[in-house]
Amino acid sequence: MSKTKFPENFLWGGATAAYQCEGAWDKDGKGFAVTDLLTAGSKEEPRRFTENFEKDTYYPAQKAIDYYHRYKEDIALFAEMGFKVYRMSISWARIFPNGDDETPNEKGLAFYRDVLEECQKYHIEPLVSISHHDVPLALARKQDGWLDRNTIDAYVRYCETIFREFNGLVKYWITFNEINMTMNYFGDIFGAGILSNGTTLLNIAHADADSLLPEKMTKRFKALHHQFIASAKAVKLGHQINSKYKIGCMVAADAHYPYSCNPVNVIAAQKSMRRLWYCGDVQVRGEYSYFAKQYLKEKGASLEVSEEDKAILKEGTVDFFSLSYYTSGCESVDEKKDMTAGNFSLGAANPYLKKSDWGWVFDPQGLRWVVNEIYGRYRIPVFIAENGLGAIDTVSDDGRIHDEYRSAYLDEHVKAMRDAIEDGVDLFGYTWWGPIDLVSASTGEMKKRYGFIYVDCDNEGNGSLNRIRKDSFYRYKEIIRTNGECIE
Questions:
Q1: Does residue 151 register a pLDDT over 70?
Q2: Is 385 helix (H, G, I), strand (E, B) or coil?
Q3: Do 468 and 400 touch, CB atoms closer than 8 A?
Q4: Which of 17, 126, 112 is nearest to 436 (CA)?
Q5: Do the beta carbons of residue 439 and residue 39 sit within 8 Å?
């Protein structure tokens, strides 16, 4: 039997986020985003959000990997790997420093135009995330970010600006990165910019009962609803500006299994997937799911949706469904089990799978499973916007980084994608997170490295910032060159 092939025009590439790579957080008129005020942390010590800057405290976003000044070098390296697509984000606060300014910051627009033109030079298709964990700090202070409906208007004005400014340079857009993050306590900062909930410690292990109070949960789901409305308005507006724009949603999508065939675990696993479907149904189908009322009740939250809002959601459904996928978890209601980590609290660790140094299990078959579930439910094109391995890399005596573990992880997930395509999934692209080492969102570390390109920078921001190609750089280059056919 012949091996299934990736589509001829499959979009291979990598993904980064502005606040994790750009640095230059106060240069050329940029305002601060909430994620600029996240301290460094570790697996043991959670990152902290400080509403004001603390003296003698390290904020990784201040310098990050200085992509702002080195983007030409980095994009040239992406081109050397053969990228067909580069998923990047625009910092809202670099365009509108306060989020709701009357006019945009021209230097911010000029920077991103330069970046996009650099991509164009190498025939790399940009995929732009409009909002990636970077609510302008001024909006958070002024109106609790997305908790205030006025943030919708500010966002749509921002969208209109970049839709028009970069018309002809960008075809693919994502309205919100991992929009379902807003449902969680750490989403107060990462997703919604809600300061009134008092969230400061950003680590799943450090959530407490107070973070789940009904009034706090209600704020999160209200803010999420405002993001749904903003996304729908942006999709409609984008299509009016350029009918060829393809505008998608993006959710954090982990696979969830029952730990055993005990029916209580099966039902629990089914329910755990609703943190994906809750958002997907609104953005793809244009309406809240049948289970939404009960889901909110179980979360201790309440939400009123007007007839006007229902109409807006129907008019602004997305063109494609993108997702991040790193790991999976199991639901074990009947007995206590060893727990696993991830973008969310993922429940019991799967005894059949191994874990990374940060407790995330390796599960490439989970990727196949989840994209089948997504495509079966929505029947619109699917794009894997994030997938990768955070690991400790060591520079060897010969000055190279021999990261065969990353290449092995990549190979297995490429196989899973190929299997999903054989299953019938309309999968049109894949962007590895992140193709170059950058600041980890969850821990604020540099030693949790994802890149095919090593950046000489430590957890305190020390180092030359020199870029070094890892062994995995050449593996991904070969995968792209052969359109995945080098994978057995």
A1: yes
A2: strand
A3: yes
A4: 17
A5: no
Per the listing, tokens 């983007």 go with 71
**Which residues, listed in sequence order, are joined to residue 383 by a DSSP beta bridge?**
322, 429
Q: What is the DSSP letter of 211?
A: G
Options 22, 118, 178, 331, the catalytic residue: 178
Q: What pLDDT does residue 348 have?
A: 81
Q: Please measure the distance between the N-terminal and C-terminal CA atoms of the chain and give it in whole angstroms.
A: 13
Q: How far apart are CA 372 and CA 123, in angstroms?
A: 30
Query: Pairing state of beta strands 453-455 and 467-469?
Result: antiparallel
287 labelled catalytic:
no
Burial state string for 439-473 with b = 16 or more CB within 10 A and e = fewer than 16 = bbbbbbbbbbbbbbbbbebebebeeebebbbbebb
Q: Is 178 a catalytic residue?
A: yes
Residue range 310-345, pLDDT digits in tens: 999 999 999 999 999 999 989 988 877 655 554 445
Question: Which DSSP symbol is given to 64?
Answer: T
Residue 204's pLDDT band, with cuts at 50, 70 and 90, is: low
The pair of structure tokens assigned to 322 is 């993108």
Q: How far apart are CA 229 and CA 159, in angstroms?
A: 13
Inter-residue contact 388 to 433 (CB < 8 Å): yes
The whole-chain average pLDDT of the chain stands at: 94
In the chain, the percentage of residues whose pLDDT exceeds 90 is: 87
Distance CA 200, CA 438 (A): 22
The three-class DSSP label of residue 354 is coil
Cα 152 to Cα 474: distance, rounded to the nearest angstrom? 43
Residue type, 86: Y
Q: Is 134 within 8 Å of 33 (Cβ atoms)?
A: yes
Is the CB of residue 174 less than 8 Å from the CB of residue 129? Answer: yes
**Set 118, 165, 386, 445: catalytic member:** 386
